[in-house]
């Protein structure tokens, strides 16, 4: 299975994904200001990282959208269904590979921003409570900057696997990469767009997007239920989507 995962990871990084990845890295680097003081610099990291979410979403669903297109269009799905090992390995390998690929892209952009600030201020500011940062000023949170950095890194990985599972399922029900790309993008993009327009953005605290970019949950002082919902989606949700994907792909037609 390991060899299948490696192959699927290679397939994920198409030319278009590399372009979006490079764009995200560039935007992340230039968006992290370091000349305004250490607290403002870290506030900018969390603020601007969420601001780059659309680029990361495009990169992710560019990876996921065509996950099963090759198998469907080439007739390989019939051969895979006839293979006992193929049935067991392919779907789970694609899920793991897509989750890893998305995590690489998303975390690398985040790392560029963090490294730029840390290299400027060394370890200064890492112990600041979030309530001292303008981005989290209304939260009253005593979580430190370093703790928030680690929490966001963890939730970004989890969120990458959630959207990988969603993208894989959408790809399994369509022989075109266009449909999963559009619908996956809408599922991720609607909360992002509407949160800037609705009077009470806290209604999006239970969305996978805000769970993934967990700084949003801290910023809006989300209740513990929002974290529980994200944990449930990350466990039961991924499991359900994986099962649906496997059943859909392996179903005899």
Q: In short, what is this structure?
A:
The chain has 12 helices and no strands. It is mostly helical.
Q: How is this structure best described in words?
A:
With 253 residues, this protein is mainly α. 74% of the residues lie in helices and 0% in strands. The protein has twelve helices and no strands. Helix 2 packs antiparallel against helix 4 (53-64) and helix 3 packs antiparallel against helix 7. It is globular, with a radius of gyration of 19 Å. The model has no long low-confidence stretch (mean pLDDT 84).
Descriptors:
253 residues; mainly alpha; globular
Q: How many separate helices?
A: 12
- Main sheet record: none
What structural category characterises the helix and strand content?
Answer: mainly alpha
Please report which band the strand proportion falls in: under 5%, 5-15%, 15-25%, 25-35%, 35-45% or over 45%: under 5%
Give the C-alpha Rg.
19 Å
The N- to C-terminal Cα distance equals: 26 Å
Shape: globular
Mean of the pLDDT scores? Answer: 84
Could you outline the blueprint of secondary structure elements for this entry?
Blueprint: H1 2-12, H2 15-31, H3 38-51, H4 53-64, H5 69-74, H6 76-82, H7 84-121, H8 145-172, H9 178-194, H10 208-212, H11 215-219, H12 224-250
Helix pairs in contact: 1-7, 2-4, 2-7, 3-7, 4-7, 4-9, 6-7, 7-8, 7-12, 8-9, 8-12
